[in-house]
């Protein structure tokens, strides 16, 4: 299972060259929403045939279930809400995902959708196509679909990261 970067987990805090934070979850409310979102993924999305098929078609070739079960993937916290994105993955195929405070303000279902989108980047979805966001349609999370294509909400692209 993907891991949450909590204090004491040993993963620690990291800031990317562009200033994006991949920090420990120190906000109890955000951590609760994240755990609720992961509950949704484990209990509503895991095992969903269309979702697994959609993920398997991505360049990484893994199913959603396999990505969700990968304990080398870390879910980190970006405590700021002014980043212009909901989630970020350090490079296509990277294993560090960060969810920003702006996603938590939208609730557990939005965070669940953001996680699916970012896990698609972990599985190789490009930042130059809509493949990551399209997985939301296959995975029963149409409510979080925006058609985002590797751009942040302000319309600019981060060169060292995948954004949505």
Biggest sheet statistics: 5 strands, mixed
Poorly predicted ranges: 151-164
Instruction: Tell me, briefly, the overall form.
Output: globular
Number of strands: 7
**Helical content class:** 25-40%
* Total helical elements: 6
How many domains? The number is 1
Terminal CA distance? 23 Å
Share of residues in strands: 5-15%
**What structural class results from the helix and strand content?**
alpha/beta
Average pLDDT for all residues: 90
Give the strand order of the largest sheet, numbering strands 1, 2, ... along the chain. Answer: 1-4-6-5-7
Q: What is the C-alpha radius of gyration, as a whole number of Å? A: 14 Å
Name the helix and strand elements from N-terminus to C-terminus, one letter apiece: EEEHHHEEEHHHE
Question: In short, what is this structure?
Answer:
The protein has helices at residues 28-45, 49-56, 64-68, 101-104, 108-122, 131-138, and strands at residues 3-4, 14-15, 21-22, 74-78, 87-89, 96-100, 162-163. With 164 residues, the chain is of the alpha/beta class.
Provide a descriptive summary of the structure in words.
- This protein has 164 residues and is α/β, with parallel strands linked by helices.
- The protein has one domain.
- It is 35% helix and 13% strand.
- It contains 6 helices and 7 strands.
- The protein has helices spanning 28-45, 49-56, 64-68, 101-104, 108-122, 131-138, and strands at 3-4, 14-15, 21-22, 74-78, 87-89, 96-100, 162-163.
- The strands form 2 sheets. It has a 5-stranded mixed beta sheet with strand order 1-4-6-5-7. The protein has a two-stranded antiparallel ribbon with strand order 2-3.
- Strand 2 (14-15) and strand 3 (21-22) form a beta hairpin.
- Helix 2 packs antiparallel against helix 6 (131-138).
- The longest helix is centred in the first third of the chain and has 18 residues, at 28-45.
- The model is unreliable at 151-164 (pLDDT under 50).
């Amino acid at each position: 299972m993907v891991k949450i970067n909590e204090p004491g987990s040993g993963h620690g805090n990291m800031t990317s060259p562009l200033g994006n934070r991949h920090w420990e979850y120190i906000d109890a409310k955000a951590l609760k929403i994240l755990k609720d979102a992961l509950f949704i993924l484990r209990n509503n999305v895991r095992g969903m045939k269309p979702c697994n098929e959609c993920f398997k078609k991505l360049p990484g070739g893994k199913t959603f279930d396999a990505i969700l079960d990968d304990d080398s993937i870390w879910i980190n916290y970006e405590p700021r809400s002014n980043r212009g994105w909901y989630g970020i993955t350090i490079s296509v195929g990277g294993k560090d995902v960060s969810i920003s405070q702006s996603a938590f303000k939208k609730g557990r279902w939005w965070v669940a959708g953001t996680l699916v989108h970012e896990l698609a980047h972990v599985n190789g979805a490009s930042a130059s196509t809509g493949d990551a966001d399209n997985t939301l349609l296959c995975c029963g999370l149409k409510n979080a679909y925006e058609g985002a294509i590797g751009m942040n909400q302000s319309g600019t692209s981060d060169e060292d990261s995948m954004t949505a």
